[in-house]
Amino acid sequence: MVYFGGLLGLIGLLTLVFRDDDVVGLPAVAVGAGLLVVGVVVGALGFVRRRVVRRRKIARGEPVPVGNVFERAQALPRLLRDVRRGAYADLPKNRPFLWVLALVYLVSPIDILPDLLPIIGVTDDAGVFMWLLTSVSTATGLYLRRERDQLPRREPPTGRRSNS
């Protein structure tokens, strides 16, 4: 929802800045402002929902993804290597195959909804891209959680350091 809200807000902002003519019989300013407001509201609701779901998972003791975008991107090759070796069984076996299918769909010129249709033609690609992004991000975040949980825990040093 956060990404969808951001996308709606961006479309609204671009409509406000670059559109002079009416949009579907409505003034461009009204459509742009409306999309911008709806985008901000949807994005904010998505952000709040994400925090609530995360708190519920933590309260139930379920694992939650860790790491920032860069850590997750660096973990993706390790995740795929461990899945291929069979060392990481927490990822469903069909998930990497679905990721490849999504990539093929995104780069192929054949779409369910043709890109020639304004706005509607891009939505199927955007939906597949958002699913792919969130699926890979969640999987790598959970993989990082497992890696961090398996690291040996170091006790903090007690007492004074010796200078020997």
- Number of β-strand runs: 0
Distance between the termini: 57 Å
Uncertain segments are none
Strand count, sense and barrel status of the largest sheet are: none
Average predicted confidence as pLDDT:
82
In percent terms, what proportion of residues is strand? under 5%
Give helix and strand order, one letter per element, not per position. HHHHH
State the share of residues found in helices, binned by percent: 55-70%
Structural class: mainly alpha
Shape assignment: extended
Alpha plus pi helix count: 5
Rg, nearest Å: 22 Å
Description:
It is a single chain. The chain has helices spanning about 1-20, 30-60, 70-85, 95-105, 120-150. With about 160 residues, it is mostly helical. It has 5 helices and no strands. α1 (about 1-20) runs antiparallel to α2 (about 30-60), α3 (about 70-85) packs across α5 and α4 packs antiparallel against α5 (about 120-150). The longest helix is centred in the N-terminal third of the chain and has 33 residues, at about 30-60.
What order do the helices and strands come in, and which of them pair?
Elements: H1 2-18, H2 28-60, H3 69-85, H4 95-107, H5 120-150
Task: Give a short overview.
The protein has 164 residues and is mainly alpha-helical. 68% of the residues lie in helices and 0% in strands.
How would you describe this structure in keywords?
68% helix; mainly alpha; single chain; 5 helices; 0% strand
